[in-house]
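Appendix B. Extra example for self-study. Work through it before the problem class; the solution is given directly after the inputs so you can check yourself.
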Amino acid sequence: MLAHTDTQGISSDFTSWAWSLAARAAFELGDTAATGELLALLDAHQPGYLAPMLRAERDLSRARLAASDYDPQAAAAFAAAISSLRELSTPYHLAHGLLDQAAHLAARGDTEAATAAIGEARGIAQRLGCQPLADRLETIQLARPRTATS
Amino acid sequence: MKVLRADPDPDTVRALGELAVLEVFAGSPEADRVSDEALTLGQALDVGASLLSGLLVTRGLYLNRTGRRVQAIAYLRESERLAAQAGDTFTLARALGNLSYVLATTDPAAAAEAARTAVRHLRRIGAREFLAFAIGNLAGSLRELGDWDTAEAELTQAVDSDGLADIEYFACERGWLAALRGDAETAETLLAGLRDLRSSEDPQDKVMIGIVEAFTAAASRKMRCIMPERC
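Solution. Structure tokens for the complete assembly:
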């Protein structure tokens, strides 16, 4: 899929979509070697040569890695990635990024922020008619709200 | 080419221009030199707005493939201006269609507008092959914008009303949209119907099929098959 970046260009439409899918697949499979290779592919280019979507997806990929490493900067990394996705990427990619962020927030117990991110992603999924996004929504476990005990 | 280069004239420029197109689309190491030579000679011989416009398109496409997007856009916009000045509708549409391709990753709204204008011109003059290209770019821009319904509608119109049912590229775009929506079955059916595209040696055709196959695998949750070397 990414073998033809030399003829298509690192910033072609195809390369951008392919890279983001490959990075997501690598993360879901826990393939840190592949994630590293994908990041290195982009890091080999100066920023001006990378399509905006690729820069945003790279930010997202790094945020996911930070979260999986329990890096205390992960929340900030996700916030920055979401900003990038909003400005530079497509609604589809933004929705996936919001769900990545929501999963991290939920794991930290930040239910309110996670719920907001999920809500925004749900709106995008409905507008797109995108079942994979809708399916992902259901997988994020939110912490039960605390209730008072007597 | 050696004979033509010896005493260059507009025919030399036309020949170089055609050679440049081949080199650029093949990703050849000669693409830079030839596309630059054609444009430089064209300017020197003052070949006229129409021919210069075409040379600018080719050079712009080369620049885009090497990541020099800003320069590519500048070349394509100038190509558009010169073609309009020359009253050359076909080259104007070609400039706009390629501009939409280059703009897709940075300004999909502008890309869609350029593609729509190109489609309008090409429908009027009946340039079938380039019409297919422009519609493909329009659908791609709409995919970027998240307007998947309109992208689907444009592809359907191309097949039903523009007589482009044989353009397998559209089947790929439709398969891609289906896969994005999670409809792996439809995507697989569309992929299975590909004949000419599968046997094509064009790198862009191979990439397109690869992308649709990857997103179809994702729609079926076969994440490992997205990277075949790990499948």
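Self-check: Chain A touches chain B through 42 residues (CB under 8 Å). If your reasoning did not lead you there, revisit section 3.
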